[in-house]
Design a protein that fits this description.
By secondary structure, this protein is mainly beta. The chain has strands at about 1-5, 20-30, 45-50, 55-60, 65-70, 75-80, 85, 90, 95-100, 110, 120-125, 130-135, 135-140, 145, 155-160, 165, 170-175, 180, 185-190. It is built from no helices and 19 strands. Strands 1, 2, 3, 5, 7, 8, 10, 12, 15 and 18 form a ten-stranded parallel sheet that branches. The protein has a six-stranded parallel sheet with strand order 4-6-9-11-14-17, with no helix packed on it. The protein has a three-stranded parallel sheet with strand order 13-16-19, with no helix packed on it.
């Protein structure tokens, strides 16, 4: 088990990166990761379970979450200047806000199931260069996705083969330059 009980900061703004390789282990962030004046450069976490209990994760570069499950212990905001990629499932009855300002790669990618065992209560994604949903996403609340936030006409919302976005009867608001529904990809709002 790896636990961080206070805020994690870069010594100098955008200088330090943090990589945690804890396969088979639980990692807990009890405090914020990065802040407005001392953001990390990049963050990469591999763990069986990652508990996000510190409300905010801020990086100037990328954020990558791999392994088993990301658990939202509190309302959580992920903010990155680079791409945000979740290769893990995401669960927890909290709100999730995801913002990526990169314009050089797909901004936000969900490769793991979101809301498979406990559904987040709302999801907001602000991406400057596209959003990819590659697995089922089930939110027990409103979903707001902006895949082309900087309006550079390159932000697509892509839903992979077999993936479904479901709002559980709540609102779905999406803005994008293109939408790509691959084979059996689906969006179910108000169902």
């Amino acid at each position: 088990t790896v636990s961080f009980t206070s805020t994690i900061r870069s010594a100098t703004q955008n200088e330090d990166s943090l990589t945690i390789s804890a396969a088979g282990q639980t990692v807990t962030f009890a405090g914020a990761v990065g802040d407005a004046s001392k953001e990390l450069n990049n963050l990469s976490v591999t763990a069986t379970t990652l508990n996000l209990n510190g409300a905010t994760v801020n990086t100037a570069g990328t954020q990558t979450y791999s392994g088993g499950d990301v658990q939202l212990g509190v309302n959580t905001t992920l903010t990155a200047g680079g791409a945000i990629t979740s290769n893990s499932s995401v669960n927890g009855t909290q709100t999730l806000n995801v913002t990526s300002t990169t314009t050089t790669a797909t901004s936000v990618t969900f490769n793991g199931v979101v809301g498979g065992t406990s559904q987040p209560t709302a999801l907001t994604v602000d991406a400057h260069n596209g959003v990819t949903v590659a697995a089922n996403m089930s939110i027990n609340g409103d979903i707001n996705i902006s895949a082309d936030k900087d309006t550079n006409n390159s932000g697509a919302l892509s839903v992979s083969d077999g993936a479904t976005i479901a709002t559980g009867g709540n609102n779905l608001t999406a803005s994008f330059d293109d939408i790509n529904l691959n084979a059996t990809g689906a969006i179910n709002a108000g169902v």
